[in-house]
Amino acid sequence: PLSPRPDLRDMPCRLPTEIFEAILTEDSLSPADLARCCLVNRSFADLARTRLYRDVTITKPQSMLTWSSEQTPEGMKMRTLRESRTCATCVRSLSIVSVDKWETPAARERLQSCISALLGHCLKLQSFHTSSTDTATHFLSSLTQTSTSRVLTGLSLPWCSIMWDLIRQQPSLTTLVLYREWSAMSTSTASRGGPILCQLKTLDFADTGGSPNASDFQALTQNSTTTLTALRLRLPFKRRGEERLFYDLSLFQCLLHLRITYNQAAFTEICADIFATIGSCPRLSRLTLDTYNRGDSWPVTTLIDSMPALPNLERLDLEPVTAWVPLTETDGSFLTAKYSSVRILGYPHSEFPRYWQDQDSVDAICAWCPAHGFEAVACGVPGDSLAEPLELMPDFWDCR
User: Which residues are in the F-box domain (predicted)?
Assistant: First the structure.
């Protein structure tokens, strides 16, 4: 039996439940005080467990294949998910980050088994993220075979035929992040299968493969014209033959934030197709323009001349930060004349600037803005993502 303690209000939270139960059997102690102490400590444990296992990222395939017992944070987390269903039910987001190829039948079978086990344990899973086609394929297979249905609200997937099948199975999907390889740019599989019923709030093309052709884009967004609030497009370096990269963005009446990643050489001709329609987006309040290469960017003066009138635009983000330099050398009238409602200017945040000119440009824009009635905001800091509030998107400027 445990020795009586006069005061257990400072009992450490790390004590296991069995210790609390043993202490409660001591008749010489006040049951009310002990119960209160145990309740508080258990509440702390529950809060810590919920926070620790809410978002699980697996970066080592071997830790998933072997349910690793190694004393590393990832190995310990995997072992806990295997042994504790209480912890597994806390998982809301699961990310499997691996570039490995599962080439042998034995490896693919083990991968399938582990993903099935994870799905079986993580009963409250809400989002799944992977850039591997193999992992996405096994996830779909496990999802189909599971005895209980999974209602997912977020998916991050590679561009492949499996992607369409997964999306069609999840009518409650609201956030979709797609990784697209150059080899898949002209591949369309949207016509296979039934319609896509999900009503997306966020659609992010987060890879250098560019955005899809118009027919695939229409298939992805056909049921989201009244719900889509955040959209990221990656424009190709040049037109693909005679095809026009034309998306009628005026259909999205609730669009709040549009981000366009462009190449300088193709900006004028390709962005003309995009800019021709966003002027009809009544609620568009934030526009972000960034480039594939830091050295290939237009200054703010050229960008403003190319952009359409946006009556409700409140925030304009540009990357690289040197694009803002021409503005700091003027009174800003060319900006306010076209966008009188803009009050926030965003620039990419970097804790360690790659070029000394970057820091000089940051200092210049941060000094210029308050003197002219604007607010300078660093993008890419924690909490800033494609559109707020979003829990599934990668860090704003690190999506490349």
Answer: 13-58
Query: Alpha-carbon distance 398 to 400, whole Å?
Result: 5
Neighbouring residues of 158: CB distance < 8 A, sequence distance ≥ 6: 130, 131, 132, 133, 136, 178, 179, 180, 181
Note if the pTM is more than 0.85.
no
List pLDDT tens digits, range 203-216: 998 765 666 777 88
Q: What is the DSSP letter of 4?
A: P
**Separation CA 72–CA 83 (nearest Å):** 16
**The pair of three-digit structure tokens given for residue 287, joined into one six-digit string:** 């526009």
Residue length of the chain: 400
DSSP states along 351-363: SS-SSHHHHHHHH
Distance of CA 183 to the CA centre of its chain: 23
What does the alpha-carbon distance between residue 259 and residue 229 come to, in Å, rounded to a whole number? Answer: 11
Distance CA 189, CA 220 (A): 11
Point out which residues pair with 155 in neighbouring strands: 128, 176
